[in-house]
Amino acid sequence: MSRPSDGSTVEDPRAALRQRPTMSEITGRYERMQQEVRDRLAAELGLGDWGSEGAPVRSACVRHPEVADAEQRNLVRWSRPGIPDEQWPEAVRIAGTVAAEHGFSELEVITDRAGDHKVAIRDGFGGRLHFGTAARTVLAVRTGCHLVVEP
């Protein structure tokens, strides 16, 4: 810890990030979570036909720009045809249950109207699972800040 000139205490951001899983560890966890959500939606609601879109996208950590070997990532996005309104509540329950098993607990309803639904579920590392449906259903994950190299 360092002390700024005003006498307050500032935690070293790199030290705080060392307490988290590395980027490779967290992306592995999140990819498994996405697969489990897709598998459960297919098995329990018949919502298969998922396809991947794009490639992972890396970006600097907004919260810790001074840590050069830390980044955030948008993982591969998954989509399928839209989910009918009558299945949406159960689909959210399934996604929320799987996400909770991976440390995601804070659910935010972003949109909830006929034919257009979106939720975000957050974890303690700043990761966000986005799950929404309209004409297409999208399942996407953005990590929080994690070190790219082993601490």
UniProtKB/TrEMBL annotation:
Coiled coil: none annotated. It comes from the Bacteria. The keyword Plastid does not apply. The keyword Cell membrane applies. Keywords: Cell membrane, Lipoprotein, Membrane, Palmitate, Signal. Residues 1-29 are annotated as: Disordered. Gene3D superfamilies: 3.30.2030.20. It is a lipid-anchor. This is LppA family lipoprotein. The lineage of its organism: Bacteria, Bacillati, Actinomycetota, Actinomycetes, Pseudonocardiales.
